[in-house]
Design goal:
The protein is an all-alpha fold and 149 residues long. The protein has seven helices and no strands.
Length: 149
Amino acid sequence: MNYDEFNTEYTRVLDKIKSGTCSWSELSGHVTRLRKATAGLTKPIERNQVDSDLAALGQMVDLSRRTNDREDVWTITSEAVRRASSGEGTVADRIGRIEASINEITHLANRNPDEREALMQSTSTLRILHSSLQSSLRAEQAEAAAAVR
């Protein structure tokens, strides 16, 4: 499986989560299948993104087993991670989406104290992606400044 195929499958799994059309054990199976299918990806950028996406997906599956009945934390979290994980737009756009998603999940965690720890764990991969993109943005800005000189 190449990275584009993974991304397509990952999006399908997120859609299933959002729609509630499959059981949590089935979702867990999708995570395992995607992990095995992407074992051959070796490009560092792709490998890091796949690992980050699979970790987030795994955390969402774990979180789903403990969903708070008062609020559908699973759907909200999966949608926030999906928006944040999108590769569309500029690096600055992506950073903005990640920050917004982290804030959304943090507010959700504050409203659901029984799920707080698990919800905050789901932001860890987003924080890693944010840090990586911040570094990329700084490098792009430095290259642009050097090109102007």
